[in-house]
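Teaching assistant here, posting this on the class forum so everyone can see the example we discussed in section. The complex has two components, and the goal was to see what a joint structure prediction looks like when all of them are supplied at once.
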Amino acid sequence: VILAGGAGERLWPASRRARPKQLLEVVDGQSLLAATWQRARRIAGKDRVWIVCGREQAASHRRETGLPASRILVEPARRNTAMAVAWAAHRIAREDPEAVFAVLPADHLVPDVGQFARDMRRAADAAREAGALVTLGVRPTRPDTGYGYIQLGRAAGRAHPGLRHVRRFVEKPDLATARRYLARGGYRWNAGIFAWRADVLLEEIARHAPELHRALAPLRGPKAKTRAAVERAFRRAPSLPIDVAVLERSDRVWSLPTDLAWSDVGTWASLAEELGVGTPGGKGSPEEHGNRVISGELLAEGASNNLVWGGERIVALVGVEDLAVVDTEDVILVTKLERGSDVRRIVATLNARGLRRLT
Amino acid sequence: VILAGGAGERLWPASRRARPKQLLEVVDGQSLLAATWQRARRIAGKDRVWIVCGREQAASHRRETGLPASRILVEPARRNTAMAVAWAAHRIAREDPEAVFAVLPADHLVPDVGQFARDMRRAADAAREAGALVTLGVRPTRPDTGYGYIQLGRAAGRAHPGLRHVRRFVEKPDLATARRYLARGGYRWNAGIFAWRADVLLEEIARHAPELHRALAPLRGPKAKTRAAVERAFRRAPSLPIDVAVLERSDRVWSLPTDLAWSDVGTWASLAEELGVGTPGGKGSPEEHGNRVISGELLAEGASNNLVWGGERIVALVGVEDLAVVDTEDVILVTKLERGSDVRRIVATLNARGLRRLT
């Protein structure tokens, strides 16, 4: 199940409402969604992949993946991941209640598809055999304050070597706390990549998220697949992440600790890190000085460690460092990389001024 | 005599070969040339203004000023200011050898036209009555290493109060020297704004710049006004600034010290200073944080002391300081203001790559 409903305004102005983050061609001219589709295909046959997304995105996602309309679950409203995942669980449970499914956010960067597939197979085995809700626990590489953390607990048992119970979840710690986690070990980033049995997830929703469980009632009835049932369910559903609604409360949650390289590409800074901004590249090129060019052409003079998202125009940088420069048809963004999360405020300002066409 | 032949590649990419600095609308939507034309008109009748420029610029300069073609001296080649001024001196001397003329570079910023006119009248009086070569000596406001300096000498005499002999010229001192000049006083910026009699200038050229004098021979003959004579003269003329060719050597040079606000707008940094970048402006606007917008629209979030030359696109700045951001149809420049003189190297790179259409 690919979750592809995100807006991703932190990568504005490259990402827009009409061109969300997962459609951006960030690496090697491939969109994040296309890369996610490839990862999904490595762990599931084509006829076993589902996409959950919004109305605006459905058509482009169909084109990108070639999936039939019946496999694209179009949300009538945005209700965060708990509802998206619960809806998919109901649809899958109709075909096979004990089916194990994986949840893959469409806008993450996971360069090593092979490692990803190996990890997911182990997670799926644990989900199938032990009925666990399994979340990937990515080893932190920096004290990031934008991610949720998992504290690993005791080993899951001999049948599932490496897997661990989860002691607790911590959402976006402050910098001092994040540094402590990194130094102490035993903490992992919660990547939002999961594997579980449909029936187990629905049981745990019933147990720990009663409000959501009640909202799902129309999806359990005989007319579950009708548009009216779906709309009724979404109207009543709380808007919650699945982590908060279920995982933080359930005692069936395991984590698979992994060294998988992973980023949610939430800000220009995290994208810059993934692309190697700051590390010297090709000699005699702008990359020699730690610059990286996603698209367009860069001329650099005494400029280092910048990320350039160019368009038709040449981008000339002189004497500047640690910037993201993003050129689009109607907006140019120049941001200090470390301040990239403030880009949201520009988006808010534009919306407040009635300039939604720019957001 | 307005000198309007400059290329001004330091304000690239706003300035181009086909759109030199003097045509840029830098302040209040008025081009530097148009402002220079207004200054010239304050000190001379319309039929007494000349423009010296290159072939590419002649048509637009005629449109801008309404001057007849006979008053626009089109240089067959670029030979720096000594030749430009000497040619004008010959043309003026044919009408009136003792005529006093002023030399006004077309790409400088002189906001106070009234003060300018008063200064020029005093300079012209000294030139007319004492036969002096008079240069404006602008009081330095910072230890600029891009300007030439004048060391003031003894007073010129009771008939011309305030005017001073020039002890010596210093071209572009290093920072320590420039600081010393500023602290010690008695030093002025050589603004490249002059007043002198045509005959006196030509005498001093004959005395101190023999090579230039010989090259000028065709302009003294009976066919002086023909294209062939002009081309012959330019072919043989050395490429020298008038300061170096004559003023540094002549003992008839006076300076009029003045507090006139003046900038040669040679770099994005000097333009930024003239426009008040770094000083808080309108409350609640991006200018509050010391940003200045020449054109286009700026959205700023934690961004201060930046100069924006925008186009059609909105420019969004987040967490950046002391930048010039210049958006044009085919190039975007982002430069640290203090590194603005390195912009020339980008221009050189583009020319070397055969991308002259961008320079």
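For the discussion questions: The longest strand of chain B covers residues 307-318. DSSP finds eleven helices and 15 strands in chain B. Think about how each of these relates to the inputs above.
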